[in-house]
Amino acid sequence: MTNVIRSVEHVVHLLPQTKQLRALHASIRDRHAQREDFVFNASRIIRLLVEAGLELLPFEPHDVQTPVGRTYHGLRVSSQICGVSIARAGESMEVELRAVAPGVRIGKILIQRDTTTKLPHLFYAKLPDDIADRHVLLLDPMLATGGTALAAIEVLLGRGVPQEHVVFINLLSAPEGIAAVHERFPLVRMVTSSIEERLNENAYMLPGIGDFGDRYFGTDVLV
């Protein structure tokens, strides 16, 4: 899968692998982590991811006057944005998006995988009416096989959103999922904090984190 990742480096934006980020990952990947620690440290990583996603949006010049009467030649986002979370795990990322973009509109998509066919099925989608005119931050902590991601992006494109206006933000990404998304939608950009080794026979990422949604929302089975 290394060659696959190299071929999509222009659309996959990996957070700098700093010591602090690796420490945060060690905390949330620990199977014995307390839920409050998991949520706190996962939220710190998500904030970094959202900031990186916003960096990929188009900007335009924006000059302001400083308190000492000088002009600062700055920038501002030149297009409207919205977030779209893939329920349920994607909802964990909404708080951090709202923290850095107050008032941002957030849509939701619910896709569930058939237990027999393993194919994703769309159950619910509620999106801003003008989403076709916005850049979209698509939120889902996990990109494994890519099936759910492909279905969600199809929904966005069906509402008129151009591929190049979608930034897909993940906490963890498997090479298989990255390859699947890029093959179908080569203009969609992806932001992640970790590219995992591979998927196991049950489509769990290795070294992985387990079921992110269960661990974040406290619905995992305690052992």
Automatic annotation (TrEMBL):
Annotated keywords: Glycosyltransferase, Transferase
Please, which domain of life does this record's source organism belong to? Bacteria
What name appears for this protein in its UniProt entry? Uracil phosphoribosyltransferase
Span of domain Phosphoribosyltransferase:
16-219
Q: GO MF annotations for this entry?
A: glycosyltransferase activity
